[in-house]
Amino acid sequence: MKRGLMVSTVGEYADPKVLVSLAVAAESHGWQGFFLNDYLLYKRDVPTPVTDTWVALAAIAAKTRRIVIGPMVTALARRDPWTVAKQLVALQQLAPGRIRFGTGAGGPAEADFGAFGRETSYQQRRDRMLEALGLLRQFLNGTPARHVGTYYQVAAVKLLPLPITPIPIWAGGYWPGRSILELAATADGVFPEKRDGDLTPDDVAQMRAVVDGIARPDGLRTELIVEGRTDGEESRFDGYAGAGADWFLEYVGWRRGGPAAAYERIRQGPAGGGAAPTRSSNL
């Protein structure tokens, strides 16, 4: 199982220079992935700094060489899919083979959507996301995009350049729930969350069995990405690995302290081992 970090872009982390420094440190200490939250407005009633995830990812792509990166997750329901397609291809040009695109219905709904006059209901956000995801796939695979739907109308548009290689799409959703299972049939990976707490290894084992039973048109195996907290304790990591997770993302962000705490966790390295450090770090 691969080990990565899920990093906040809010509060003390709302500075691309901090995020780039954390990503470089993560690569030096054996982590295999570095993923950023993607918000516009985290709290509607409390002004909170939030940085632009895509600008930060571009800088990280230019400053790293090995680590896998991407947004986890982008609320595609509040972004134009043609713009996201251009961003993803540009990121891949900076970091060939290292980009993953995480997407979901998005939230927090009242802040990230309602404050800008967009749909706040989960069903509406999900429906718009699914429609946008279909268009995004057309733009990325080189098909002249044609679509007349509830939210988008596009007539025979082909965007260039195309990706060098396919960009894996990881879809987020709630477990148990219908949407995450529907997405598992077409997405390259699924990133489940629970509404009432953290996923347990038992949850992961159940989902692994369900996802493996869903036939994908391309015949490939769907990756299962889990977020959690091990604090470097190998026993916690082993539970998720044994349950069938392909990636484990350790959360680093304002809910666990500031950047100093993040650097300390990064220096510990991923639970369960990991790639050997590529170079010494002066952080």
SSE map:
Layout: E1 2-7, H1 16-28, E2 33-36, H2 53-63, E3 68-71, E4 74-75, H3 81-94, E5 101-104, H4 109-113, H5 122-141, E6 145-148, E7 153-157, E8 169-174, H6 178-184, E9 189-193, H7 201-212, E10 223-228, H8 234-243, E11 247-252, H9 259-268
Parallel strand pairs: 1-2, 1-11, 2-3, 4-5, 5-8, 8-9, 9-10, 10-11
Antiparallel strand pairs: 6-7
Helix pairs in contact: 1-2, 1-9, 2-3, 3-5, 7-8
What would the CATH topology of the largest domain be? TIM Barrel
Instruction: Give a count of the beta strands, DSSP E runs of length 2 or more.
Output: 11
Form type: globular
Radius of gyration: 18 Å
Order of helices and strands: EHEHEEHEHHEEEHEHEHEH
Helix content: 25-40%
Structural class: alpha/beta
Describe the main β-sheet briefly.
Answer: 9 strands, parallel
Descriptive keywords:
283 residues; alpha/beta; TIM Barrel; 2 domains; 9-stranded parallel β-sheet; two-stranded antiparallel sheet; 9 helices
Q: Can you offer a commentary on this structure?
A:
The chain has 283 residues and is of the alpha/beta class. The chain folds into two domains: 2-171 and 228-233 and 250-268, Luciferase-like domain (TIM Barrel, Alpha-Beta Barrel); 172-227, no CATH class. Helix content is 36%, strand content 18%. The protein contains nine helices and eleven strands. It has helices at 16-28, 53-63, 81-94, 109-113, 122-141, 178-184, 201-212, 234-243, 259-268; strands spanning 2-7, 33-36, 68-71, 74-75, 101-104, 145-148, 153-157, 169-174, 189-193, 223-228, 247-252. It has a nine-stranded parallel β-sheet. Helix 1 (16-28) packs parallel to helix 9, helix 2 (53-63) packs parallel to helix 3 (81-94) and helix 7 packs parallel to helix 8 (234-243). The longest helix has 20 residues, at 122-141. 42% of the residues are buried. Residues 274-283 have low confidence and may be disordered.
